Amino acid sequence: MNVLIESSRSGEPQVWRQQVEQRVRLVLQRLxxxxxxxxxxxxxxxxxxxxxxxxxxxxxxxxxxxxxxIIAKAEDAQGALNxxxxxxxxxxxxxxxxxxxxxxxxxxx
Length: 109
Known about the structure:
This protein has helices at 14-27, 77-100; strands at 2-7, 35-44, 54-62, 66-74. By secondary structure, it is α+β, with helices and mostly antiparallel strands.
């Protein structure tokens, strides 16, 4: 799985980027066969004003489901990332289960 990290803050510490990549790989580990690429974008929407303004967008390129885009907002970047990852794994698991479920048979009685 290819993981790309984009951030609106220039000069983002390399250690922080590595932590984000490790977190993404850990959370998506069990769905790794489905996800070909994960692009994580972290932005501060309204600058240093404060509030719920950190946005995390995760774009997953998957095998069989196309592209999946998840957006989450929180007070800090870590919270936004965690929310987005939780939504992404939930959505992928649901799509995977739906695909595996057999079609219902319609009885013509």
